[in-house]
Design brief:
Structural class: mainly beta
Order of helices and strands: EEHEEEE
Largest sheet: 4 strands, antiparallel
Strand order of the largest sheet: 3-4-5-6
Helix content: under 10%
Strand content: over 45%
Distance between the termini: 22 Å
Number of strands: 6
Number of helices: 1
Radius of gyration: 13 Å
Length: about 80
């Protein structure tokens, strides 16, 4: 099981697949936790999102790793490494 974000650019007619390395290698329960929605910040261009039993997060500029947890679900989230 593997999670990715599909980054669509209709102006460039391009799709970029961003594997979510933090999630895929993070020991999450794929049937119990998942990413629900993401969007790009209009000024920063960075991706922010949230998930079921994950909380809210901001990804790093690569779009594949967590830069910062904005709001965490402490009951279901693995401990920080």
């Amino acid at each position: 099981m593997s999670r990715a974000i599909f980054d669509f650019s209709f102006q460039r007619q391009q799709v970029v697949v961003l594997p979510q390395k933090w999630f895929n290698a993070g020991g999450y329960d794929f049937g119990y936790q998942w990413i629900t929605r993401v969007q790009r910040g209009t000024r920063s261009g960075q991706i922010v999102g949230e998930g079921v039993r994950l909380g809210a997060f901001r990804l790093d500029p690569s779009g594949t790793q967590i830069e910062e947890w904005l709001d965490r679900d402490n009951f279901s989230h693995p401990p920080r490494e």
